[in-house]
Structure formats: structure tokens, C-alpha cells
Amino acid sequence: IIFAPSKLYGNVNHARKGLCYAMLPVSALEKTISMFVINFLCTSILITAGLFAADMLLYLIVPSRMEGFLLNYETARLFGEELIELFFLQSIFILGNMVFKRQKVARTFISLIGIGFLLGLVMLLVFRAIGLENIERFADSILAEFPKEIDNWDILSYSTFNSTYRHIPLIRNIIIIAYSVTGLITATCWVGVYRLIKTTKY
User: What is the DSSP letter of 201?
Assistant: First the structure.
């Protein structure tokens, strides 16, 4: 997922090696769509096929120790969410592949760490401005909405979270905001990829 863009399209913005890619008789939009199909759709199909093959092999080797296949209806939603997160992460590295000309993966990692540090600093300043007591009261009000009959450790269980906590209005709103931000960042990355393909000078 991380290294695929740099391996497949590592030379597209190279001053000399990228000329062949730049001279392809297709538009920037078509290049972007082909990059999307190869990096996300093909990668997702390969990952899914690999998981099914490994699941089948594990079930055939030790059927007595497994009640069924790991990939089933209950885990399909979790698998879909993981694919969305992988696509989000891959979109960032595809953009980094187009922005940086050398050491693409390492520089993208460093950029993400820097952005994370800046966001953490901003959050720290916001928390200090709000006050620790106000944050504690807000956290207590959130915990008061959680069902009392469920053990605190059960929140780590995906099935419990999906059947119970996901229906709490605050948790549901957080999930909606998280997916909205993820979709916005992903779309921004691909728009950036399209613009860089269209405007890169060789």
C-alpha cells in the first residue's frame, strides 16, 4: 500500500525519466484515473484475494480449531472500513509520490509526522484554553451516555461497539465527521495528483 505508488510511478515527475510518461497520448485526467484504478482497485482486489486464500488455507489445515472462516458476514463491514482507511493512507502517499522527486516514501512519512506534531500542538493549546476541569466535565457527560450493563473492556470488541456504542448520538456524529474528513482529504489528494500531473514541467 505504502510502497506501491513509488514503485509503480516513481519516475513520473523525474526530469528525464518522466518524459516517456509525459508523452503518453492521453489526458491528465485519464492518467489520474488509471493511477486510481491500478493503485486502489487492483491493490484492493489483490489484498482481498490474498486474505481469502490465507483464510481458506488456514481453515483446511486446522479445521478442528476454527468454527468457520475468518472472513464472513460479521467481519465484512470491518474489512470494508479497513479498505477505506487503506485507500485514505494510499492517497496521501500517491500525492507524496508526485510532490517529492527523491526519497518519496521517507519524505512523505516525515511530512505526516510534522503535520501530526503541529496538530497535536494546536490541540494542546485548545485544551489549555478550554481548561482541564471543563474537559473532565465534558468527558463525564459522554461516559454517562454509555450503557451501564456493558463492561468497559467490551468497547474494544468490534461487535459490541458496532451493535451498541455506534448508536449513541455523540459516537455516531464523531464517526460521520471522521468519515467526512477522511473523504475530503482523500479527494483533495487526488485533485492534487491531477493538478501535478497536468502542470509538472520536464
Answer: -
Position 113 scores a pLDDT of: 94
Q: What span, in angstroms and rounded, lies between the C-alpha atoms of 22 and 130?
A: 51
Closest-CA residue to 4 (of 48, 53, 41):
41
Asked whether the predicted pLDDT for residue 102 surpasses 80, the reply is: yes
Q: Which residue has the cell 471522521?
A: 178
- pLDDT > 90: what percent of the chain? 16
Structurally, the chain folds into a number of domains equal to 1
Residue 66: what pLDDT? 59
All cell numbers assigned to 184: 475530503
Q: Dmax of the chain from CA atoms?
A: 65
The one-letter amino acid at 24: L
Pairwise CA distance, residues 88 & 181, whole Å: 10
Grid cell at residue 51 = 486474505
* Residue 121 backbone phi and psi in degrees, to 5: -65, -40
Residue ranges making up the domain that contains 131: 4-199
Cell matching residue 96: 507524496
Q: How far apart are CA 138 and CA 133, in angstroms?
A: 9
Confidence of residue 147 (pLDDT cuts 50, 70, 90): low
Q: Which range among 72-81, 112-121, 145-154 shows the weakest confidence by mean pLDDT? A: 145-154
At 93, list the grid cell.
502517499
Cell of 115: 503535520
Work out the end-to-end distance of the chain between its first and last CA atoms, rounded to an integer number of angstroms.
27
